[in-house]
Amino acid sequence: MAETLVRTGPPQFRALADPRVTFFELPTGHWPMLSTPGRLADVLLRAAAGEGHRISVDADEQPLYLRPFVLDVPERPRERTGQVDFYLPDADGDADAPRPAVVLVHGGPVPATQRPTPRDWPLYTGHARYAASQGVVGVTVDHGLHALTDHPRAADDLTVALALVRAHPRVDAERIALWFFSGGGLLMSDWLAAPPPWLRCVAASYPVLAPLPGPPMVDARFRPVTAVRSAGELPVVLTRVGLEHDTIAATVTEFLSAARAAGVHVVTVDVPSGQHGFDVADPSEESREAVAAAYRHVLGRLTA
């Protein structure tokens, strides 16, 4: 998990690649001083001697969040309103006709001091420009998921952003798709639990769909694996990667099982050779085809 976070997670985790940071594993729970005191003492002695596993990253290796989007998409006009950016499609026919919108919800947590903020990362600007190239409005949003305890605030930010999106004159307020990425996947819960009629589709790429193992810091409200039981006829487009970390992959498996039991229609787009963040991490034909396929499914729901 640490190596996954360093290479594909939020940027603050790059600090774990410092050569002074080493890792050990103990086959026990949260209180090793009680469950395996002898093994813990051994680990502490080895750590003091400079032993342990290190994560190495090339000094000139570009952080994942700054790598280019896997599809070559042209620049688009952008409008910025508060924490929301709109990437507008070309006007053809009736220039004032409103278009469906795809709202991209970034992952996290991301530190509040991080610059650039996620809506300016190539991953999300690339997705938004691609959406605009397909004739819909692409929307990027900065929300307040700065810590694992911030999901309620991030959910409120997303609600405010969606009000701005639906009020935009170029947006068809009755045809909106929400697309969640990585750790932002937990924010799907509210929209699965009580989908409004204007929400035509929910999409997710390499998402976290239940709180990961560890201290219970995430509000119990944010469990898509539970919320999906109430999704009804809301379509879900899920992009999953073959090289996902086991703990994240387990949440996806649990989600799909719950969706099947509830009769929720989920379309899966598989990227067998892809890793978490494949749409910037793996510039391959497989990645490009997967992104395009996911958009075909999402746009199909928006334009039906």
Residues in helices, as a percent range: 25-40%
Proportion of β residues? Answer: 15-25%
**What is the total tally of β strands?**
8
Name the helix and strand elements from N-terminus to C-terminus, one letter apiece.
HHHEEEHEHEHEHEHEHH
Number of helices: 10
Mean pLDDT: 93
Quaternary state reads single chain
Radius of gyration over all CA atoms, rounded: 20 Å
Structural class: alpha/beta
Side-by-side strand order of the widest sheet: 1-2-4-3-5-6-7-8
* Uncertain spans: none
Q: Categorize the overall geometry.
A: globular
- First and last CA, distance: 40 Å
Report the sheet with the most strands, covering strand number, pairing sense and barrel closure. Answer: 8 strands, mixed
Key descriptive features of the protein:
33% helix; 304 residues; 16% strand; 10 helices; alpha/beta
Describe the structure.
Strand 5 (about 170-180), helix 6 (about 190-195) and strand 6 form a beta-alpha-beta unit. Strands 1-2-4-3-5-6-7-8 form an eight-stranded mixed beta sheet, with helices on both faces. The model has no long low-confidence stretch (mean pLDDT about 95). With about 300 residues, the protein is of the alpha/beta class. It is built from ten helices and eight strands. The two termini are about 40 Å apart. The longest helix is centred in the last third of the chain and has 19 residues, at about 285-304. The protein has helices at about 1-10, 30-35, 35-50, 120-135, 150-165, 190-195, 225, 245-260, 280, 285-304, and strands at about 80, 85, 100-105, 135-140, 170-180, 200-205, 235-240, 265-270.
